[in-house]
Structure of Winged helix DNA-binding domain-containing protein:
Amino acid sequence: MAILLYLAAKGEVKFKTLCKDLKLTPGNAWSHLEKLQREGLIEMKRELPITGSKVSVRLTKKGYERADEILKVISELSNLRYLLSGALEGSEGSEGD
């Protein structure tokens, strides 16, 4: 989920940057990215410059749609939390009634 939201905000990023920003080990990040790629949510592009292989990662259209779904759920949960906190505050004053 964090990787999807990160890529939705950042666009295409280098693998090393993703690991650094999300505080993931390369092995852990690679494992998650492979799963996301199998699900069709991301694309990984390998460049072969003279200095060595570099991988960049970006969301697919399906990945952006999934990130949007996640953001909607987070927003709904935030609204629910707000409503529940208001209901709980209101019920505290009515206990003595």
